[in-house]
Write a structure and sequence with these properties.
The structure is a single chain. Helices cover 20% and strands 33% of the residues. It has five helices and seven strands, in the order E-H-H-E-E-E-E-E-E-H-H-H. It has helices at 45-56, 59-62, 184-188, 191-208, 210-213, and strands spanning 33-43, 67-72, 115-122, 125-138, 142-151, 155-165, 170-181.
Length: 216
Amino acid sequence: MRRASFRDETVDYAAVGATQASDLMQYPPHGARPAEESWRLGSGEERFRTAGESLLSWQALKAGGLTVAEVRPASAPGYSGVSFDEEGRPIVPPSLMAEQRFDAEGTPLVSAGSTVRVHGRLGGLKVDAELRVIFAVEEAKRIGFALGTVGDSVVSGEESFMITWLPNDEVWFTVRAFDTPVAWLYRLVPRLVQRRRRELFTRYLRAMSPLWVSPA
């Protein structure tokens, strides 16, 4: 459903797709703080498929304590978003989600170019941001997407979520991000950006890891 609160705007940062750059941690966009974490989720095709389905239904954010609302598909029909290979090179995507799909609750699944409102609380502070899906991939060994800030966020930047099924049969979940403070408090106290990112990563892990979802 389209809401009046949506604005047809581009993302509010220049380095679109930089979360896919192989040298992000060494050479982040100017003024941005980079971050990257990877966690082993298990092994095998079933784990890969299950984790991928969960990721594309926004579970990393939802189960991480954030509310995903007002999901709007791309305004341009057939929009496929920006796509990059594992080394960060732009490519023509071999497989992207062209048709809108929905989860059991009727929420549109992740799709390239869609816009979403996320809100909640993080570290005692309010979270309210409009985000754009920069790219979404659904390949034989790789499923994921990236979100870029459009507006209203306390930081400006991008984060990517990727499930990878490795040749050794292990399944890994990787989150990469770069943030530049926007809100005055985060500009005044830069360490808050790092603390915010650390808490987000912890929430994403708890949302996606079977060890947290189904503890022994």
